[in-house]
């Protein structure tokens, strides 16, 4: 059994946090008796500034050979906004058809939340963000640029195909969480009272699929504005949440904030279809934090937890139980480490990047 | 001096909270020596269900004769989503060209915030939401509806004209707040790294106008996802915020949540251009709460504070100092009342709707 992993450290603190995740990976591979082959790839802002290349179609093709991709962070202060985000991150999500962006919002024991009176019992949901449609398609343009008559547009797109596969994934997830003791509730978040066209496509599919195939799952609908309010006031109402791409971006950042901040938020860009050969890509939700890059200050827990997700998901999709088991172990080690952050800020804990890596290794019994 | 006011109570708790605001208005008009003429208008869900009429073009024309509009809430459980919202609220915002949606996010003394360790000093900003463009234009459609090939779109639109007038309003507001002791910082919120077309129009206008005409105002830019995170973790970084329509909807609901909830959030749909004869419209941010309608449970403070804004803004725009002074008095009375909510939930305080109206009247010395 083996794992053939593409590693994109990316910009800023990306390579540092990835380095810690790879230490952890080495250990669990050794313990679990599986081979790991890692290929570091130089895609990111530095290469773009040196060579002018963002990410070529051939490079995207090349990534298809891997079992999975681990990404640190993309974003460079000297590169105009959108170039790397659209050219690397979104290009990979779209071209590898990673149609699920899976983002748990879970407050770990010991981690401080900004919400008064809320604890791990109240903040424990998972957000399924559609990852290949919506305002993220990039359709639109600018006319009469630079004049008083300038007009620009961006198009939000929803297809039954794209919406349905995302909804089905979310319903299945809600069902599997129900089996673990969660309420079995799926909340759709949209803005159907204004975005009547795209909102209609989502809402009708949600009702039809839910009624036909998931009668055991409670369906709820929230407008995105109300959802943000509830995340700040009563996050305990959420179990599994399904949401289009743009609103998903927003509510998962807010979700990360209430779950203690970016230092711990993991995510997976999944292609969960077993018939699809493209790899999934896993990344911390946080950005490249150029201000603290190279200072051994970044918290690698989000990246290490993303590795846990990578191992679990890749193991499950590819039928490799040793990977799945290793993923569970890494997840448990992260959970074991978080109480050490009690009374500290997650991002300014005083612990160094490699020191936190050490803690996770220690929790693994290494 | 007089005020000719159109009153749309609307649905659910709307008429109840408006009734309290009108009691307050009567009082300050009597005290301030100005005439008030109020015309109740039956627009809303009930009328739609009875007659099939949402809001006719003639009725919109008719509204242009008033000095201002006070709106309770629009939204009815038996009416499909979008019908009343687009047919009344958005139709009025757009056709009366109320291009500024002004939403203070201010934690009043005594009001509970969900954020640990934050108080009135940390939560005191004002959001300027563009109100006549963006995803709210309604452009888009659905093709192959009800089939597996269904596709729907919604268009986000930004024009230099619409963006510039909104930005100039926001820069002026930041400047006038600076004169009152605020930092003099204007934060633009968008998603320029993905929405490069509309985001570009906003960002370039922001930089150009700020550099040319508002060098005294500090400019900051935040992505909308980061903004939601900061609103939950460090709201004190915000002074004046300017934001397109859809993202403005989202961040102001979150803003209302951190400022103690919908019970207190006021808003104005402004047409601040003195050369424009159309009235502005003022409304609480909260919805129609059909579950508690008719039970004397709704908190009228948001509506009364919207009345304060109505009086201030109408007085200023129309050069009627008596109205402005009355608006200041109503605002001060709301501020005087909020400490009575110490230790209580704003929305389930145990105080009745009319009782809270009494408190405000009492604070006015009536
Ligand atoms: C960097 C950016 C393009 C990206 C997104 O908007 O999806 C990020 O915010 C995220 O949430 O992964
Ligand atoms: C009711 C709805 C159309 C409206 C909006 O989205 O603008 C509301 O949420 C608001 O914020 O005033």
UniProtKB/TrEMBL annotation, chains A, B:
NCBIfam families in the cross-refs: PRK03437.1
Pfam families on file = Iso_dh
Keyword presence, Transmembrane helix: no
Which EC class is the enzyme in? Answer: oxidoreductase
Query: Where are its TM segments located?
Result: none
Supply the SMART domains for this chain.
Answer: Iso_dh
The cofactors named for this UniProt entry are: Mn(2+); Mg(2+)
The record's EC number reads 1.1.1.85
What terms describe the molecular function in GO for this protein?
Answer: 3-isopropylmalate dehydrogenase activity; magnesium ion binding; NAD binding
Renumbered to this chain, region (Disordered) spans 269-289
UniProt xrefs under InterPro entries: ICDH/IPMDH, IsoCit/isopropylmalate_DH_CS, IsoPropMal-DH-like_dom
From which lineage does this chain's organism come? Bacteria, Pseudomonadati, Planctomycetota, Phycisphaerae, Phycisphaerales
Q: What is this protein called?
A: 3-isopropylmalate dehydrogenase
Entry keywords, A to Z: Manganese, Metal-binding, NAD, Oxidoreductase
Q: List each copy of the Isopropylmalate dehydrogenase-like domain by range.
A: 4-360
